Amino acid sequence: MANYVYLIGDPSTRKAAVVDPAWDVEAIIKWAGGHDLEITNILITHYHQDHLGGSMMGQNIQGAAEMLGKIKAKVYVNKEEAEGTRRIAGLAESDIVRMDAGDTLKVGNLEIKFLHTPGHTPGSQCFLADGNLVSGDTLFVNSCGRVDLPGSDPEAMYQSLNNTLRNLPDETVVYPGHAYSSESSSTIGKQKRTNMYMRFGNLDDFLDAMGYSRR
Q: DSSP for the chain?
């Protein structure tokens, strides 16, 4: 699936949050330990199994549920997808922390801001920390997430890309959810220049390019 898994850590306290640990949980925990990082939070960009865990294509991906069996942490999801997350990953209500647009989380001394960016899914969210954006399946390098899946919304994707994310400082570094480009990261400024999905002047043109029309 060419997924990225990220660790967002505070160098002073050595606390860290892991983003979308759906694959090879043992390796993630081992890597963190080898770099003197303690994983204290699990952040989920959206509830698709390749980011969260669950049953997919005939295999059971343990993901967040498996990690909770090995470390003491909570799973942070957007409130729009909390119930779906529980069902797909087999989590208890007590495992979940429901987040809203603009909420923040302290990981050690580092503050992470939660940006609600629906479009790919209703509760897709990005994480902003110290000028760095983990963008999940909302914004890829020179592309964006699919809007033809159950729960997708092309109009919401336009707003997420061309209002919420476009208004971030140009120097913000973008770390996408998949390795769909030869570049593993970019910046908001570069994406505003090169990513066609952030360059449409209006919603109707965006929808036309996506094969949709305004509702």
A: --B--EEEE-TTT-EEEEE---S-HHHHHHHHHHTT-EEEEEE-S---HHHH-EEETTEEE-HHHHHHTTS--EEEEEGGGHHHHHHHHT--GGGEEEE-TT-EEEETTEEEEEEE--SSSTT-EEEEETTEEEEETTEETTEE--SSSTT--HHHHHHIIIIIITTS-TTPEEEESB--SS-S-EEHHHHHHH-GGG--SSHHHHHHHHT----
